[in-house]
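User: Good morning. I'm curious how NAP would be positioned relative to this chain. Could you predict the structure with it bound?
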Amino acid sequence: MDISLTEEGPTVSRIAHGMMRLSGWNADARGILELVERSIQNGITTFDQADIYGNYSCEELFGEALALSPSIRDRMQIITKCGIVLPPSCGNSIKHYDTSPEHITESVEKSLRKLRTDYIDILLIHRPDPIMDVEGIADTFSSLKRSGKVLHFGVSNFTPRQFEYLAERLDFNLVTNQIECSVLELSPFLDGTIDTCVRYRCSPMAWSPLAGGELFTGRNDRISRIRKTLEEIRIERNLRSIDIIALAWVLMHPSRIIPLIGTGNPDRVDRAVTAIDLKLSRTEWFRIWSASTGRDVP
Ligand SMILES: NC(=O)c1ccc[n+]([C@@H]2O[C@H](COP(=O)([O-])OP(=O)(O)OC[C@H]3O[C@@H](n4cnc5c(N)ncnc54)[C@H](OP(=O)(O)O)[C@@H]3O)[C@@H](O)[C@H]2O)c1
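Assistant: Good morning! Here's the predicted structure, ligand included:
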């Protein structure tokens, strides 16, 4: 199932596949292509990248895989990000943000080369930069759009106010704010982040919707409590595993949040898409919410 992130597009799959961990999957180009094809067969056509993933290696690995089957590019949407700069292994530089027009433009050119594509479907500013110049970002987005190198633009980890400042300077829509959101990360439901997307009529994207795997491996009281509730619902609903419920919980929000799954395991990709058809009741949703907060709603 696909949805449109705003009334004017772009179309993305209801669940997207994140490529942040790709360099750790120990797969060659053929293996990566097989996983990408498996996702597409499951209806997951949107793939999330960033310039820095895998210490700047993941876009290139992904591009090498796509080069084995060039027509696959027409059946997918690629998201990538820029704005974080990792230091080289020597010298006195440190990790920092750069949202200058020069950096954004240069980063897009590098991403296009590494991904072996002519266009990026959606470009995101990876993190809000405390010294960002929103006018400069808006002008750069406009010029990249005119060039056809980037079709749509969004942000990631922006506060509501930062989102508004940039959105108001553009004569086209920001299409998403990609934020951390899961049964373990509730803050975007409460701090106005999701509400701002609703107000600007775009859908948020949820990174680490399974808390980066911590949902399964975490050992503290809170995680144990959430796991127990998910497990109870799993048994009541006769489901295969709790990851389906955790994804359905994110999918249920009316803003149509797009979860970005990060697994390199094809069986888990198959399982994840079944969450799209799982409709939780309000009571089930709040049982999970209350397990996460540790108390009933007031
Ligand atoms: N914008 C941002 O700032 C930002 C930040 C972080 C991430 N992201 C994006 O979000 C994507 C997803 O993030 P994520 O990878 O943290 O997502 P995630 O789906 O919450 O976590 C994936 C991790 O959980 C493990 N996992 C999944 N199902 C499991 C299960 N049933 N049992 C045990 N472990 C399981 C996976 O291992 P296996 O591979 O073994 O299944 C993988 O290590 C990233 O790829 C990236 O594209 C964006």
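The first strand starts at residue 2 and ends at 4. Residues 18-21, 48, 126, 156-157, 178, 207-213, 216, 243, 260-265, 268 surround NAP (CB under 6 Å).
Let me know if you'd like a different ligand tried.
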